[in-house]
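SEQUENCE WITH STRUCTURE:
===
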Amino acid sequence: MDDLLAEAGDAAAPLELVLRAAGPYLDGLPDRKVHERSADVLLAELDGPLPERGDGALHSVERLLDVGTRAATHSSGPRFFHLVVGGSTPAAMAGDWTTSLLDQAAGMWVSSPLAAQVETTVLRWLKDLFGIPRSYGGVLTPSATFAHVTGLACARAWWGERHGADVASQGLAGLPRLPVFSSGLVHPSTRKALQILGHGRNSVRTFARDDAGRIDLAAMETALAGLDGAPAVIVGNLGEVNSGDSDPLADLADLADRYGCWLHVDAAFGMFAALSPRTAHMTAGVERADSITADGHKWLNVPYESGFSFVRDPAMQSRAFGDWGVPYLPGAEGEQVNYNTLGPESSRRARALPIWATLRAYGRDGYRTMVERHLDVASHLGALVEEAPDLELLAPVKLCIVCFRYRPPGVPEDRLDELNIRLGEALLADGRVYAGTSTYRGMKVFRPAIVNWRTTTTDVELLLTVLRELGPDLVRELR
């Protein structure tokens, strides 16, 4: 293929290939292994030198579909419990296809009023869903990490102003170190955002009263009092990735009020606790935060690259990211919004479309039902672990994460970490269920996250079945 114009008259044909592949692929997800051992061999079929003469769209897409549907990690299916990853709902997936079809330049109103208006609507719907005041500003981001960058960049602008500096234009030179306080629940994505912003990932000072990382409020208050009124940032955590534990956000909001701090809340998946009467108490105080991070490709079940940042004072977003002073980039007037001046991205995909599609399709009731089901599934798994003589539950089941380890009789304590590491590797290699290991309170653990809209109790029961199939051979090898 030498000239792309030759395909202009049949541009939809490659999309029809994807459509024809979609039905069998999606219908087969419940029966597929999450990952096939042979997939790594297939990847070589997509490698090789850049072709001088292309194959054309149909041949190219046929090859990608042939390899991709076999080699992909099938994380949209019901048994991907690794990390905290939801699948895409049918409406969200179709909305994402629509996003690619329309191919909007979503940064400015002038380039796509559609994308800008849908983002405005979606942000309002999300605030309504989570109980965040409508007066908050917001922006969609590619991830929770970028949402952290957004919120903490606003915090940095606020902090700089209190030192008489405009850090957006002048930078950080000559300013003192930004004090950042959190509990032991702080996530690496918060640290990465601080690293990106020039404050260093190790700048977070943590206050924990136990080896689970739960906050020592008294120690944090003593440290805040020692700043003698200097501005600081407090990071609250709503939903820790190993246990689902959370900081007392209302208490942190009280500290922020008392000492004049900026309160930033990491609610990447924990924000969805607001949807259930059983867990809504965990979110109390988040509505008093100065900035809030949440994530769509977790419990909202929309395609990857979907984060949300909400900021109490919308003007801080413009001060942190706007005022480019570039003549060819027009400003927005009246109710129009240029979202590329409210967050770190300049060129932006119209990621609001799949969010709009799924919220419109299922509404508050649909998402509440899904969250309630996941809470039930997680509680069911936790109960099975507690009852089992060869498993040990290591944290109360509070949200959608179940933290446990394999602990069969007769295995010495000093061999349990090695056993669970090897069992985790065997589980991923087996491929029927995907749940990796982590470290919690110094122990190697499994911490499956139940956030996929397809997942039921049958899927988590299979997890324990597979662990028990694989575990005994490893125990014999250790003896």
